[in-house]
Amino acid sequence: MPIQNIRVFTPTKARRDILTRRQKIFLVSVTGIILLALILFLLFTFRTTWIVLYHNSDFTVMSQVSDALDDAEIRNRLSSCLSRIYVPARNYNEAHGVILRNITTATSLSLVNVINLMGLGTTEAVTLHITRTFSTA
User: Which of 34, 43, 80, 129 is 20 to 30 Å from 14 by CA-CA measure?
Assistant: First the structure.
């Protein structure tokens, strides 16, 4: 068996011995750059893309949302200022459904927050109108 290995690698060794030092350094450098490019490509291709699921709320609602996502075993993370919850893009719809099922019954969640949860952004004028309309009802 060792004799067969020597026969397999002999042509490669002979070719490598013919190269000058500069050519060997160039060959190793090019190989390293190609490997680094491949690793970076795979890293950026298969990394998790995090998107905002919920934002602009007080801490109690944020903790309710985070707890509901944890109970449903959906990965999530809070932003550093505790104003946004991020979920992986592939779990967005599932997380959105969990929040709508579990959190909308909470008393601290207003109609404006439910509209924001549904992805319907509101301007300040619309928010003020909704608040005035439903606070008198």
Answer: 34
Dihedral over alpha carbons 74, 75, 80, 82 (to 10 degrees): 10
Q: Looking at the whole model, is its pTM more than 0.70?
A: no
Cβ atoms of 127 and 112 within 8 Å: the answer is yes
What is the model's pLDDT at position 38? 97
Quick one: pLDDT at residue 107? Answer: 45
Backbone dihedral angles phi then psi of residue 121, each to the nearest 5 degrees: -65, 145
CA atoms of 64 and 68, how far apart (whole Å): 6
Terminal-to-terminal C-alpha distance of the chain: 88
- Domains of the chain from N-terminus onward: 2-45 (no CATH), 50-135 (3.30.70)
In whole angstroms, give the CA distance from residue 60 to residue 22. Answer: 64
| pLDDT one-digit tens code per residue, 41-60 | 999 888 888 888 877 667 77
Local structure of residue 81 (DSSP, 8 states): T
Which position has the higher pLDDT, 137 or 24? Answer: 24
